[in-house]
Specification:
alpha+beta, eight-stranded antiparallel sheet, 14 strands, about 270 residues, 4 helices
């Protein structure tokens, strides 16, 4: 049944189940903002090992991501365990537990024309299950017209499992995936129930890993910065496959495919059993 959460209303729970995404205003305490924005500056200057970058060193036209640093970075470890994002994910997934998969910094510099392609998260990851979700938190203001996320409501219920799209050439591990491409949403936007929200720092979007989403380019004159955390709930199972993210592999896991992913690599952050 999950857990209660001070910010999660019954209507939010219903919307998450029906639409696969909800906005939670003011989800992150402002005390985190300065530290996380300073971390973003450092990471842009000296990227970590699990990063993607479309224009290294550029002040414009640059899409940058960095992930899976919580095991070695004290700030990100505190964020994972103390920010409340795991509790938020568990409450909306209807899960008694939440295991952290990874955190991800996401930056679009000003005047970055390239959009974030429409995609699902789940095919990128070595897991299956309905209780798998992301919490995407804005650290700078973002409007839908300037690179805030958009979602196809209800797409998490359609049963599609679409081939992941490479955002940069550094994601060449995706080439091993074989599957149906994601629908071309932009070719006929009117045929889909698309929703997005303008975001202020601290606002969160919580969405199912099955929900199709994307974002336009950032035509604003300021940087868009967000941090996402990826969460595994009660029903998640280990499901490695060709083309899945290599940050955690079968060689590192003691469980077999189809089993619950109990592992020190995926620690419990929330446990209300």
């Amino acid at each position: 049944m999950g857990q209660d959460h001070r910010l999660v209303t019954d209507e939010m729970r219903k919307d998450f189940d029906r639409h696969g995404v909800v906005k939670v205003p003011g989800a992150l305490d402002p005390r985190w903002f300065d530290e996380l924005l300073a971390y973003a500056d450092r990471e842009l200057a000296e990227p970590g090992p699990w990063s993607t970058d479309t224009n290294p060193g550029g002040d414009t036209d640059r899409l940058f991501t960095s992930r899976y640093q919580w095991p070695t970075n004290d700030l990100l470890r505190r964020f994972v365990f103390e920010s409340g994002m795991g509790e938020l994910a568990a409450a909306l997934m209807g899960s008694e537990t939440a295991r952290i998969y990874f955190e991800q910094l996401l930056v679009k510099e000003p005047r970055t024309s390239a959009p974030t392609p429409w995609h699902q998260d789940l095919p990128y990851w070595p897991f299956l299950g309905r209780q798998i979700a992301s919490v995407w938190v804005a650290l700078t203001p973002a409007t839908v017209a300037q690179s805030a996320l958009e979602f196809v409501r209800g797409s998490h219920l359609g049963g599609g499992y679409y081939a992941p799209v490479s955002f940069t050439e550094s994601s060449d591990w995706l080439a091993d995936f074989e599957g149906e491409p994601c629908p071309d949403i932009d070719a006929d936007r009117g045929a889909f129930d698309i929703v997005g929200w303008d975001m202020e720092p601290g606002d969160a979007l919580v969405f199912s890993a099955w929900t199709i989403h994307g974002a336009p380019g950032n035509e604003a004159d300021h940087r868009r910065v967000a941090i996402a955390t990826r969460w595994l709930g009660d029903s998640a199972v280990w499901a490695p496959h060709p083309g899945s993210d290599p940050i955690i592999t079968q060689e590192q896991m003691a469980v077999r495919p189809g089993e619950y992913p109990e592992s020190d690599l995926l620690p419990l952050v929330v446990d209300n059993r």
